[in-house]
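During the reporting period the student researcher (J.K.) took over the structure-prediction task from the postdoctoral fellow and processed the backlog of single-chain submissions. One of the processed entries is reproduced below for the supervisory committee.
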Amino acid sequence: MNFKGKLALQQRVLPTYRVPFFDLLASHCEDGMSLFAGVARPEEMIAGGTTHIAKHVEAENIHLFNGAFYLCYQKGFINWLEAWNPDALIVEANPRYLATSSAVKWMHARGRKVIGWGLGSPRLSGPGAGFRKMRRMQFLSRFDALLTYSQRGADEYAALGFPREKIFVAHNSVSAKPMFNVQRSTFNAQPTLLFVGRLQARKRVDSLLRACAEMESKPRLLIVGDGPERAAMESLAKEIYPSAEFIGAKHGAELKPYFEQADLFVLPGTGGLAVQEAMSYGLPVIVAKGDGTQDDLVREKNGWQIEPENYDALVAAMKNALSDVARLREMGRESFRIVSEEINIEKMAEAFVKALNYVNT
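J.K. obtained the following structure tokens:
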């Protein structure tokens, strides 16, 4: 399935982990794809990537304010559209990006379609909720279709009033379909738990250390990653779980031996793009609930979703997971099936092409 046209795709930034998807999507665009993306703020510490098939044009990101008031203006948006002259445009469906409205008007003035790509639209409450809902729908109504990361996101857009037939779910994915499954039988000397991610406070590695200390059969704990909280976590580990192994930052193929050694993958805090990669190695997973992307990826048959900041739920899930090796292996096989058959960058690209062909029929 291909898009028979020229695609333009806007992103605020181009992180390394998105490069394989963008290049794959570009390979499905018969007349090519141009990607307009700028550079993140230094404090975000987002590693930028380089595409090989998609034509990356660097935007000049002008960052305004911070936190809840953050806005971004991408200078040169219209110049890029004029130079590329696309048949369709996909943009981040985020009203904080100030150049988007002008880009949508430019496309529609030429009879061309625009698709918004976003997480969803959580229910609003409190003073002014009705007005904010109206403003949000006014923004979304400019798009000819919406792409969203999860079924929850699709349901939220539909509840807001956007036509459901114009909403397409492209499950958030950063990994290709795995080619083989790691075979595991019993635990070795002790079960091995793995964490992969940036060492930030919101990742709750402190909770993971404390939970390991509560396990009757003390697991081996591998912590892969680096970040501002590393020194504090190493200090805490010396006090409550000195056997914890801090591996440091690893990327790409460097991660393979750690996934292969693990029996269970645990992300007790928010975020976590490594979940799908862990599942591709046949690992059951424990993750904190977040923006909805976990709902489709982590299910009762392959893992546990716990409430963020709920330490007791983390401990209970870990004890449950490690209590039955045979069940844990079966859950790992289900993880592998999900990312092989349902959620991978190939399936994600298919959803994008489906949405493009829908708006261009």
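The committee noted the following: The chain has a mean pLDDT of 94.
J.K. will present the remaining backlog at the next meeting.
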